[in-house]
Write a structure and sequence with these properties.
α3 crosses α6 and α3 runs parallel beside α9. A two-stranded antiparallel sheet has the order 1-2. The chain contains 14 helices and 2 strands; from the N terminus they run ααββαααααααααααα. Helix content is 74%, strand content 2%. The longest helix has 40 residues. The protein is an all-alpha fold. It has a single domain, classed as Na+/H+ antiporter like fold. The two termini are 20 Å apart. It is found in: Cell inner membrane; Cell membrane.
Length: 388
């Protein structure tokens, strides 16, 4: 197996870094350092001449995270055009499994916390952190066939698409259509510049793309649509060659800076000094829906998908491998943390407990998936050794 010279381009180290950053944020939020750090995160920075006036925490979640979604969108486009989802035969099985991995966690969440102020949190347990899941697979899955990784990758990509739709549709507010229209024009200009960059490769065109991208982000952020959607639109329209180079250039920064900083800020919540029975239903719903809802939903729907796969589709995965993918799918983390912030932006106490639920639920899924993946990998290694 080829190992990247830069650990930030790998899968294991970024996953560990993300976990450490979240743990550090949670720790410092519950030590005497809380007040000083909270003052920094709540400090507002405005852009003169615009309506943008965000706290440091929101600059992280709306600004830095837009770069992450730009990279995600580039990966989505590649997989939809040249990768694991470029044909109906490839897409149908993970699509059915992904549907189960969304519908069942939603049902579990609503069953536990579907009334009152907590009801709006149902999108939170639908996400899968692809980087984290692939990191766990890389750590514990030595010996697993490549088809497991392919299935998980396609599953997580479809989850990303669903999460992006949720962010764009459910959490828009007071949309300013003129600003959004100007933002879409900015996306079109960005697309044209990316074509010119592909054809001519001039550095000034790249500089112009950066300027247009930043302006487009500002317009979308001011329009009432969540700012990360600007990153998604820009990533989807970028020409393939410049897009690939952009992804390669940004990958270490995203894995080594942007995601850990976001994880630190998102996990900076105070653990409530209450008994478990006094915790919000949102906490318990997420804790159950992420590991249990995902493994049940992906496992059940994945099993159905393997039984009804169309002619020409890839061979079906064993049910135990589908369960391994389902357990990995329960690691919601990055997008789930963002969804928790968006769903309960007006209810600080519920938001903090929902974030704790994401951390605990993702940790349970991490441990569970590590065990299942390790067992499956060991079984495959034993089979390989016996047949050699």
């Amino acid at each position: 197996m080829r190992i990247s010279a830069n650990p930030l381009r790998g899968q294991q180290f970024p996953a560990v870094l993300l976990l450490v950053a979240a743990g550090l944020g949670l720790l410092l939020a519950n030590l005497p350092t809380h007040d000083a750090l909270a003052a920094i995160l709540d400090f507002h920075i405005a852009v003169p001449g615009t309506g943008l006036d965000l706290s440091v925490a929101h600059w992280v979640s709306d600004g830095l995270l837009a770069v992450f979604f730009l990279v995600v969108a580039i990966e989505l486009r590649h997989e939809l055009t040249h990768g694991e989802l470029d044909s109906p035969q490839k897409a149908v099985q993970p699509a059915i499994a992904a549907a189960g991995g969304v519908l069942v966690p939603i049902a579990v969440y609503l069953l536990i916390a579907g009334s009152g102020d907590t009801a709006t949190g149902w999108p939170i347990p639908t996400a899968t952190d692809i980087a984290f899941a692939l990191g766990v697979l890389a750590m514990f899955g030595r010996g697993l066939p490549p088809t497991v990784r392919v299935f998980l990758l396609a599953l997580a990509i479809l989850d990303d698409i669903i999460g992006i739709i949720f962010i764009a549709v459910l959490f828009a507010h007071d949309v300013q259509w003129l600003l959004l229209g100007l933002g879409i024009i900015g996306v079109a200009v960005f697309w044209l510049l990316s074509r010119l960059l592909h054809e001519h490769g001039h550095a000034l065109i790249a500089v112009a793309m950066v300027i247009v991208g930043v302006v487009t982000w500002g317009l979308v952020a001011s329009s009432g649509i969540h700012a990360t959607i600007a990153g998604v639109m820009l990533g989807l329209v970028m020409s393939p060659v410049p897009a690939g180079r952009t992804r390669h250039a940004l990958e270490p920064t995203v894995n080594g800076v942007i995601l850990p900083v976001f994880a630190f800020v998102a996990a900076f919540v105070v653990i409530p000094a209450v008994s478990p029975t006094q915790l919000s239903p949102a906490f318990w719903a997420i804790v159950v829906a992420l590991p249990v809802g995902k493994i049940v939903g992906i496992g059940l729907f994945g099993w159905i998908a393997m039984r009804i796969r169309p002619k020409g589709a890839a061979p079906g995965l064993p049910f135990a491998d589908i369960l391994a993918a389902g357990a990995l799918g329960g690691i919601g983390f990055t997008v789930s943390l963002l969804l928790a912030n968006l769903a309960f932006g007006a209810h600080d106490e519920i938001r903090d407990q929902a974030i704790l639920g994401v951390l605990v639920g993702s940790l349970i899924a991490l441990v569970l998936s590590g065990i299942i993946v390790s067992l499956r990998a060991r079984w495959y290694r034993q089979v390989a050794a016996a047949s050699s």
